[in-house]
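Risk register update: the risk that structure generation would not scale has been downgraded. Supporting records follow, first protein first.
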Amino acid sequence: MVTRVPGVPGVPKVPAGRRVRIALVVFTALLSSGVASAQSKPQPASRPTLEQDLAAITEFNRKYLKAINDGDIATLSSLTDEGHIMITPGRPPLIGKAASIALSVKNDVLNR
């Protein structure tokens, strides 16, 4: 004899123990398909190697120091942001893009 769910025609009532087993099977199927994952994250592109990281850092430093030495304020500005901190010996740190640019402008004026 099949018991029907009240108010839902054609849907049989499933015993509690069987409902748990069905839920586990459905959850396992969803999990294995990736549907039940917490977030659907795209796979990251391949990560750079250590050598590539070091080369990128070296190139950034080269551009940064050249911009400072050449008084190239536009390039210096493009390489820094508001979280930028410049520490030089014997001076207080310069915090933020505006402070770095102001020092560059001041040095540029003094060196003319």
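Supporting record for the second protein:
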Amino acid sequence: MLTRLLHIGFRYVGEWYMVNMKLGFTLLSENDSRNLLFAFVSENEILYIGGITMSFRRLLNGYRTPSATQCSCAILNTLISGHLQDGGESKYMRSQIMGSFTSVLLASTLPPFSKTA
């Protein structure tokens, strides 16, 4: 499935890391892009796929430091943090593709983190 994402235009644009037991991120490019699909991946596994209309940097900040009203962000923060603390890596990818294709892509496979968030 990761090869499929690369084939349809997803690119690596950054990675998550832990600092002092807190989630951080490096964003290599596309920091203000909007209306896109994104995926969190680890090695050859897709952990989560989503779509957003806000800026990508704002989304990542929401996952890094979720507010009390951001339940999905808090769940994903816990999952990503736990994955990193267990020695996993977590990078993220993005694609400018949006629209009806989103539901087709998401219906084709449900990554592990998507089942709990």
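The chain is about 35% helix and 30% strand. On this basis the risk owner (M.S.) recommends closing the item.
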